[in-house]
Amino acid sequence: MTRHTTARRARHGWAAICAVGVLGPLGALPACGRDEPGYFGTVGRGGKDAATFYLNNGDEPEYLDPGLVSDTASSALVRELFDGLVLAHPDDQHPVQGVAERYDTSDDNLLYRFHLRADARWTDGEPVTAHDFVYAWQRVLTPATGARNATLLYALTNGKLFHQGKILRLGEAVRPRDGQGTARAELAAGTFVRVYATSPAKLRASRPLADAPEAGASVSVGDDKDGAPVRVLGLGPPLRCNGEGDYWFRLEAGGREGWAPGCALVEDAAHAEVALVSVAVVPTYAPRRPVPAEAAPVAGLVPRAVLVADPSAVGVRAVDDRTLEVELERPTPHFLELCTLPTLSPVPRAVVERFTARGESDRWFRPESIVSNGPYALESWKFRYEISMVRNPHHPDFERLRMHRLVFLQVNDVQACLNLYRTGEIDYIGSNVSLPSAYMDSLAKQGDFSRFVWLGTYWYELNVKAPPVDDVRVRRALGLALDRQLIVDNVTRAGQLPATHYVPDVTGAGYSEVGEAERTAGQARFASPEAAFDPARARALLAEAGYRVVEADGGYRAEGFPPLELLYNTQEGHQKIALAVQDMWKRHLGVSVQLRNEEWKIFLKDVRDGHFQVARFGWVADYNHPQTFLDNFLSYSNNNWTRWKSGAFDELLEKAAATVDRLDAARLYREAEAVAVADMPRLPVYFYTKSTLVKPYVRGFYPNAMNVHPLRYVWLDDKWRAGGPSTPAFPPDELPAPGRFAP
Q1: What domains are defined for the chain?
Q2: Taking a C-beta distance cutoff of 8 angstroms, is the pair 282, 250 a contact?
Q3: In the chain, fewer beta carbons within 10 Å around the N or the C end?
Q4: Alpha helix (H) ranges present in 481-597?
């Protein structure tokens, strides 16, 4: 790009280039460049630098911090700026070499040892070490960080316990006391303990005190009441509580003593005095030995003040600068795929902590400050305009990169984006842009159009704490009143598939196979009449919930039903779907719906803060496995913005994740999914396909179900008319077969 062109765009904005008020029929756009027959617009680049690639990112990113990203607009940029242990192949997304050149595994797949390449460097020239990964992963799991994808690291030994503040270290030697005040054997300073409850605490069970305990019992406790302050006196028999191993506790409240399960207790931090603990299991990085069934935990009450957080309880450590060892809580077949995700990328500790200490944690990833380790370095960030990157001179692939500069536009108006693409201002509309449904039929005939299956689900979040959608009958009624087939046929028009559940039917790890077997046997779990479009049944459910639906003015009116607010982020496609949903709920249920749109960052904050009743959302797979769609329904997931909780769901999902046989695991995943579908905290609308436009001269771009397109492999072919395969700029470095993890 010339300086003149840059200045012109800076003054007028990208959307003003070759601007028209509204994109009309495809032949009606004024020609800023010559259209090429058979393609959408020009195939020329107007003298642009042959080593600069232009694309649209769609939205302003929320973060460029790997530990904090959770949206696609941010992730697409972070993937270019940071390299993880392994990377995703541009074609089928299987793991290839990243910072790790090889790895070892134990026979039980619980231990991993990664060997880092010697030439991995940060943009400041310093080596990338195993310590950088340890810091980054521990930072994600530290509660104060607020990483919304922290559950991705729950696979590590004690990852979940540490993130939830349930495993701490004794800062000094202490003699635990039982409920009668009798001192037990001393625990040394540095001992890690599992924290079950604090005292005084609040009881959140529906009854102040439970009945006498029964060993091996299984209970479920809600959290809809704050409860009353109680004192924890002692430990009782074990039980399963909300799907997790727990214990009964002897309590005192208001002069009475009784028993309650541990999950009924919540910490009252303002009055915390003591904690009930047991000695915790910590990583050993050695083959795991069975724990004798008769072994009882050493438990007792210790002063809360002696407990400190220590992330070394988590199963990741640096043996030396180039050797990283990982211990998993349970076998995780998709662990290597997890390592390709931005969340598991390293971050530069010194830079992050310098800005955090100043109270400016959001400034370390600005262009003037950021230190990264990916193939590209951040050059500039012009708010709501464009982000540019240049080659990282210290990256091992520096000489192999055919694109020396990347320019990401921030244009969320799809019509403006199409204007820019058609006139040759951008080479690719970007992975975060959805083509307008009104022109889909015409666009599909163009030679630069591509459509492929995309592992993603479009749904509406329902805030189950906000009336009237706090009633499951209302949630089900709203789902039954959605004509999903009409939406995909007449609104989105891109080959999407109506969805009555959350995990796409084509998902791997045995999920699609088990689903097909169910259908063949006539037992399709998610194709029952209860899931179909059924306005009459929907009206009956509203009546059961106390909102009788009566005929009025040639339609319906739900008596006493308050107006619903439907929130969506600013984009034409989301608006059209919201308008269709608004019409369906009014027409079939007599429910009034008010629409509210917000820019992406504001939208995300309102959803996370619970300031919504119904909100447009969805989920795109982080990896090809049902876990990625379902773990954000977990009661403790930072991505569960519906506030829905189910002990039965949590238990099934955790059991599925611990099941080695992939088909047995897939059956458990579908069983857990059925629990969520029955309670309907999210209304599934459709399963994604991806329709996109990429210029015919772009090579190294591969449609794939993950819709992840690493730009390090892209190059521009000035001889594209001669045909030939689309090869990457350089072949990805494949990972050798794993070696054996030997302690």
Answers
A1: 3-79+351-451+691-717 (3.40.190.10), 166-308 (no CATH), 453-690 (3.10.105.10)
A2: no
A3: C
A4: 484-486, 511-520, 535-544, 572-589
Cα–Cα distances (Å) from 288 to 121, 281, 328, in that order, read 35, 11, 11
Amino acid at 374: G
Structure tokens that stand for 512 in this block: 């699609």
The answer to whether the beta carbons of residues 601 and 570 sit under 8 Å apart is no
pLDDT given at position 84: 97
Token match 């009450």: residue? 301
Mean pLDDT of 654-675: 88
Nearest to 556 by CA among 523, 586, 598, 600: 586
172-180 long-range Cβ contacts below 8 angstroms, 24+ apart? 172/306, 174/302, 174/303, 174/306, 176/277, 176/298, 176/299, 176/300, 176/301, 176/302, 177/300, 177/301, 177/302, 178/234, 178/235, 178/300, 178/301, 179/232, 179/233, 179/234, 179/235, 179/250, 179/301, 180/234
Distance of CA 95 to the CA centre of its chain: 19
> What's at 592, amino acid-wise?
S
Cα–Cα distance list, 647 to 151, 156, 173, 226, 636 (Å)? 17, 22, 36, 18, 11
- Please say whether the beta carbons of 630 and 673 come within 8 A: yes
Residue 530's pLDDT band (boundaries 50, 70, 90)? low
Q: Which residues, listed in sequence order, are joined to residue 569 by a DSSP beta bridge?
A: 598
pLDDT on residue 9: 39
Order of strands across the sheet with 449-462?
497-498, 682-693, 449-462, 614-620, 564-569, 593-598
Name the token pair of 704: 């794939």
Q: Measuring CA to CA, which residue among 408, 414, 576 is closest to residue 60?
A: 408
Q: Indicate the average pLDDT of the chain.
A: 87
- Angle between the N-to-C axes of helices 662-679 and 647-657, in degrees from 0 to 180, rounded to the nearest 10: 160
Report whether 230 contacts 202 (CB < 8 A).
yes
Q: Could you tell me if 76 and 406 are in contact, meaning their C-beta atoms sit under 8 angstroms apart?
A: no
- Per-residue pLDDT at 112 exceeds 50: yes
Q: What is the pLDDT of residue 251?
A: 81
Measured at the CA of 622, the angle between CA 665 and CA 507, to 5 degrees, comes to 45
Is residue 276 over pLDDT 90? no
Q: Which of 735, 732, 52 is nearest to 400 (CA)?
A: 732
pLDDT above 70: residue 1: no
Please provide the distance, in angstroms rounded to a whole number, between the alpha carbons at the two ends of the chain.
55
Structure tokens at 428: 């690719």
**Three-state DSSP class for 194?**
strand
Specify the pLDDT at position 32: 46
Burial of 404 per CB tally in 10 Å (0-12, 13-18, 19+): middle
Banded pLDDT at 294 (limits 50, 70, 90): very low
**What is the residue type of 366?**
R
Bridge partners, residue 256, by sequence: 253
Burial class (CB in 10 A: 0-12, 13-18, 19+), 431: buried
pLDDT tops 70 at residue 633:
yes
Binning pLDDT at 50, 70 and 90, where does residue 227 land?
low
Strand-pair category, 682-693 with 593-598: unpaired
Q: Give tens-digit pLDDT for 175-213.
A: 887 655 577 788 999 999 998 877 766 776 555 566 667
- pLDDT recorded at residue 223: 54
- From 223-237, 643-657, 692-706, the region with the lowest mean pLDDT: 223-237
What pLDDT is stored for residue 179 in this prediction? 56
Which strand (E) or helix (H) includes residue 357? helix 349-357
DSSP letter at 586?
H
Sequential DSSP letters for 52-105: EEEEE--S--S---TTT--SHHHHHHHHHH---SEEE-TTT--EEESSEEEEEE
Q: Using CA atoms in the order 525, 526, 528, 534, what is the torsion angle rounded to 10 degrees?
A: 170
Residue 266 has pLDDT above 80, yes or no: no
Question: In this structure, are residues 670 and 511 in contact, taking their beta carbons and an 8 Å threshold?
Answer: yes
Average pLDDT, stretch 683-704?
Answer: 94
Residue 318's SS3 state is: strand
